[in-house]
Design a protein that fits this description.
The structure is a homodimer of 155-residue chains.
Chain A lengths: L4 H14 L8 H8 L3 H14 L2 E4 L5 E4 L8 H8 L22 H17 L4 H6 L24
Antiparallel strand pairs in A: 1-2
Helix pairs in contact in A: 1-3, 2-3, 4-5
Chain lengths: 155, 155
């Protein structure tokens, strides 16, 4: 059982940006540092921009920057929004053609379990994740382009 | 977020077999009825045989048959056993190489959510699923080869 790569990349990006509210990251450096697809990350940034969670700052010190309050962004809320569908089994998809679809107890059981999964994730905010992620402190410096407002004094 | 196809097929097979403890299903007819891969289903039947949940009955009226008590088989227990890994995000895999692996709060949060997911599934047994699956009553008759012990009077 796995979250989509889209959600995985989006959560990593949000976590890195939330590590320092003044942190700005370009798609190219983030993709290079994490060894992931630039094209895929571009799509992620567009969706995160639409939600208002991330904004793109133009100019020399530009890049992606957190635009939401990490203390109000809940993990379950983010995952529910980012997962294209919660098709835990085939019958959850529009194209699913299981012989038992619509008349199988598995659908209800899986729906309840997915609900329990996201409810558990909702107990954690993006700010909580930053506090419990020491890895954010040892990110490659090349990845970070701090703007004038940076608290990290790199302006 | 999706269970593996392996788990999906295994759950369908267990559900169909549990629909009638005397029901025997051949891999070919099951694969044809559900429009799924025979080769894939063969691997599923081998694993279900090893667990002792399903047995293969040889002979003219042979086929796969439920070998476990459906009232004691819990859905969460089945899913935990059938999912190759519970790699909800990359860092859960042995080959994962996320920059934050081992120092990211997401791992703990996801592990707790997965636990909540399977705990919820454990509230349901295979027997419960049969009771809440009217679809089992309208399976193609060709799919079923009932043995002498069949309660469906087809011997």
């Amino acid at each position: 059982m796995r979250l989509t790569t889209f959600t995985d990349y989006a959560l990593r990006l949000l976590l890195v940006l939330a590590g320092d509210p003044a942190r700005r990251v370009t798609i190219d450096t983030f993709a290079a540092d994490f060894g992931i697809s630039t094209a895929h990350l571009m799509k992620v940034s567009v969706v995160l921009g639409r939600t208002g969670w991330v904004e793109t700052v133009r100019g020399r010190n530009g890049g992606l920057q957190l635009a939401a309050d990490p203390t109000t962004l809940r993990l379950g809320q983010m995952v529910r929004h980012l997962e294209a569908d919660f098709a835990i089994v085939e019958c959850f998809t529009e194209t699913g053609n299981c012989l038992l679809a619509g008349a199988c107890g598995l659908e209800t059981a899986m729906a309840s379990a997915l609900d329990a999964f996201t409810r558990e994730l909702d107990r954690v905010t993006l700010a909580d994740l930053v506090r419990t992620s020491p890895g954010l402190g040892r990110l490659p410096s090349v990845q970070v382009i701090s703007g004038p407002a940076s608290r990290r004094g790199k302006a």
